[in-house]
Design goal:
The protein is mainly α. It has two domains: 1-30, no CATH class; 33-79, Ribosomal Protein S14/S29 (30s Ribosomal Protein S14, Chain N). The protein has helices at 3-12, 17-27, 60-70; strands at 50-51, 58-59. The protein has a two-stranded antiparallel sheet with strand order 1-2.
Length: 79
């Protein structure tokens, strides 16, 4: 269940106390305190393939899109 659908369902059962309590117990996303799931891309929110070096906090896909504007150059292939 994604976070957005979790919030949609929670809004629907807001007035039913018992159902809300049970729903939160079993369906609320777990809050991560450490590990790969805690680090998120500041641009898109992905958790995998995270680049935090130099304070970037971007996933590799976003880094490829923004690298030129940040001043990074691609080495290895001569074009």
């Amino acid at each position: 269940m994604t976070t957005s659908s979790y919030k949609k369902v929670l809004k629907q059962i807001e007035h039913k106390k018992a159902n809300k309590k049970r729903f939160l117990k079993f369906n609320k996303p777990k809050i991560r305190k450490y590990g790969a799931g805690r680090k998120k891309c500041t641009r898109c929110g992905r958790t995998g393939a995270h680049i935090s070096r130099y304070g970037l906090k971007l996933c590799r896909q976003c880094f490829r899109e923004v690298a030129k504007s940040l001043g990074f150059e691609k080495y290895g292939h001569e074009v």
